[in-house]
TrEMBL record, chains A, B:
Domain HTH crp-type: 182-256
Keywords per UniProt: DNA-binding, Transcription, Transcription regulation
Claim: Transcription regulation is one of the keywords in the record: yes
Cited InterPro entries: cNMP-bd_dom, cNMP-bd_dom_sf, Env_Response_Regulators, HTH_CRP, RmlC-like_jellyroll, Tscrpt_reg_HTH_Crp-type_CS, WH-like_DNA-bd_sf, WH_DNA-bd_sf
Protein name in the entry: Helix-turn-helix domain-containing protein
Higher taxonomy: Bacteria, Pseudomonadati, Pseudomonadota, Alphaproteobacteria, Sneathiellales
Transmembrane segments: none
PROSITE patterns associated with the record: HTH_CRP_1, HTH_CRP_2
Cited Gene3D superfamilies: Jelly Rolls, Winged helix-like DNA-binding domain superfamily/Winged helix DNA-binding domain
Length: 266, 266
DNA sequence: CGGCTATTTGAGAGAAATCAAGGATAGTGG
DNA sequence: CCACTATCCTTGATTTCTCTCAAATAGCCG
């Protein structure tokens, strides 16, 4: 509901975000072991896409004082399902996977979140998923209490956050269609197209998509087994739709074809 | 994010809501054909669970003036995907299914919404799903413009709405786990348990669950075919977990067993 | 009662999961 | 810099489910 902020700013500033990993904020000895530092909001590479973009310069200093930046290593968790939700996080760089587990270990990844996206949605005070880093990732840690204060004070931030939540709703709806009604080929094609749109780098006649996550994560995201993911990628490769230069990148050779495959047009 | 309103008020007042169908607001000739009438907020059966509960008595009259009530017949749509989103709706009674279609007609139902729930989430001004009545349903039609005004004026309403949206997020996450990782038996069991919790009527040693929707809707919600839904229900019947007095109701004979089946414990 | 639609049931095919190796890749330490 | 190991990915063979196709039955409304 509410105003319809144009959200298509998200494809910008992605390459800057990549670099952010290298120029991490200086750590101080006290917090070194936890890789937590004072937030360098002033120079944040994700600023323009994050909800913080709604903060005006005067309030920024105050905001920065309440916020911490945290480096998360691959596989490490930011928070877990059912844990008390004291923070909301904004992804600065890298990539986070949100996942839910069944008792017997089956897993469903519900989203991959990159720079500018917000994680930590809660209900009744508890997180609703596990959040883990897929690769080296920097997140910005905002205390819920502080956030609430800012949201009240800054309607633009409230709007921006609402917009993020509605985006998330839409993505989950798309995921539901994919999981419930698409074939493996359609699933993989959809996944690659979505990633290409989000962060692909397009050259003359091909698009390079980088996969920070492994086949396992892809399988648990698409509701498939790792073998089916592998076989399906191989199939698309043999068809000539794409190439696989390495385990962590895909070259889309025929975007239109892949898009058609994603929608089920044979 | 934000405050954690306790949302477990939703199991109350359901029986009242059922009656609402019978005592529909009086229609006036002018709007008769469209089944749209002035909203009878003062006597609304869904008031306590709806976001309108955040409105104080003074503002209620004003609110009622902006809002219309609409009767929707089974199969009729409230809105369609990609349609311009001029209204947000609050379900007063009956049941609405939200669904998304693929080009070739495959369908994924993403939610069933009952009294007190809000539908009409939009992004960039357009609805994200089709919304259709499953049975005779009354919805309350709130112009987005008016709603925005109220949200600004009444923080409690903003909070209530945010809470609804977060609930929806959680439900979609659960749906994703179900679609991606559960077996047909687990899917049906989960579906029935959820419905029992939401609106089941419990007697001594059994719970009656009413199914307003047909097998087709259930299939499209759970990512199955209608045949598999039918076979799975038959299987559970033969196991003795439940009985099927009619096509539109299920008697859960062993709740704990069904709960275990829902979680995959054999 | 008759016709329509919804649901159940059956038989068979097809597709993805499972089980089982084999190969590639990356990270470690010599 | 290279060998070594652990992990990740691919490929193959087989099994098991679920879908598909087809038909019968049951429920509902006029």
């Amino acid at each position: 509901m509410l105003g319809s902020l144009d959200t298509r700013i998200s494809s910008l500033a992605k390459s800057e975000a990549e670099d952010a990993r290298l120029e991490l904020p200086v750590t101080n000895p006290e917090t070194e072991r936890k890789n937590i530092t004072r937030a360098p909001c002033a120079t944040c590479s994700a600023h323009n896409e994050a909800i913080c973009s709604a903060i005006n310069d005067c309030d920024m200093d105050d905001f920065a004082r309440n916020v911490r930046t945290r480096l998360v290593k691959p596989g490490q968790s930011v928070y877990r399902e059912f844990e008390e939700a004291k923070f909301v996080f904004s992804v600065v760089s890298g990539e986070i996977r949100l996942a839910n587990l069944l008792d017997d270990g089956r897993r469903q990844v519900t989203a991959f979140k990159t720079a500018g996206e917000v994680i930590g949605a809660q209900q009744n005070g508890y997180y609703q998923s596990d959040a883990e880093a897929v690769c080296d990732t920097v997140v910005c840690q905002i205390p819920v209490k502080a956030l609430e204060t800012y949201l009240k004070k800054m309607p633009a931030m409230q709007t921006a956050l609402t917009e993020k939540v509605l985006e998330e709703l839409q993505e989950l709806r798309h995921l539901a269609i994919l999981l419930g009604r698409k074939t493996p080929v359609e699933k993989i094609a959809t996944f690659l197209i979505d990633r290409a749109e989000k962060s692909g780098s397009e050259t003359e006649n091909e698009i390079k998509v980088s996969l920070t996550m492994g086949r396992n994560d892809i399988a648990d995201f698409l509701g498939l087994t790792i073998e089916t993911v592998s076989r399906t990628i191989t199939k698309l490769k043999k068809m000539g739709v794409l190439e696989v230069p390495s385990n962590h990148s895909i070259l889309i050779k025929d975007r239109v074809w892949l898009e058609n495959l994603a929608e089920g047009e044979k």
